[in-house]
């Protein structure tokens, strides 16, 4: 896991785009704070089109793509609103003091099994 930001950098609720280094390059990740204050790490790229999810709105434990309105569950990556039909990767996230740590080397979401 690598440090990607401070807990205080993430809007409440809202999302922050970060670039996470991996052995094969960098991965764009949205670090998202849901309406209950929980933190999540998902791919920052909508599976419908290459649009940044971190620019969308957070409602409950969902993030909505600002361009076409697809919504994704922050825990599973599964879409709950069209036009997206494919899930987005979910990554491991940990908090150590004030630091947010993310491991973007593998999709840990339950939706990964469906891919």
From TrEMBL:
Every Rieske domain range: 2-102
Keywords, sorted A to Z: 2Fe-2S, Dioxygenase, Iron, Iron-sulfur, Metal-binding, Oxidoreductase
Gene Ontology MF terms in the entry: 2 iron, 2 sulfur cluster binding; dioxygenase activity; metal ion binding; monooxygenase activity; oxidoreductase activity, acting on paired donors, with incorporation or reduction of molecular oxygen
CDD domains: Rieske_RO_ferredoxin
Family matches, as Pfam families: Rieske
Annotated TM spans: none
InterPro entries documented for this protein: Rieske_2Fe-2S, Rieske_2Fe-2S_sf
Matches recorded under PANTHER family: 3-PHENYLPROPIONATE_CINNAMIC ACID DIOXYGENASE FERREDOXIN SUBUNIT, FERREDOXIN-RELATED
Protein name (database record): 3-phenylpropionate/trans-cinnamate dioxygenase ferredoxin subunit
Organism of provenance: Quadrisphaera granulorum
């Amino acid at each position: 896991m690598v440090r990607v930001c401070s807990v205080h950098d993430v809007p409440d609720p809202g999302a922050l785009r970060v670039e996470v280094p991996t052995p094969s390059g960098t991965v764009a990740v949205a670090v998202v704070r849901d309406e209950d204050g929980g933190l999540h790490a998902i791919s920052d790229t909508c599976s419908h089109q290459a649009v940044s999810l971190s620019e969308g709105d957070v409602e409950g434990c969902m993030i909505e793509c600002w361009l076409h309105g697809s919504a994704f569950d922050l825990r599973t990556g599964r879409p709950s609103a069209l036009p997206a039909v494919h899930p987005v990767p979910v990554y491991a996230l940990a908090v150590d003091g004030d630091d947010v740590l993310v491991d973007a080397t593998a999709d840990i979401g339950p939706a990964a099994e469906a891919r």
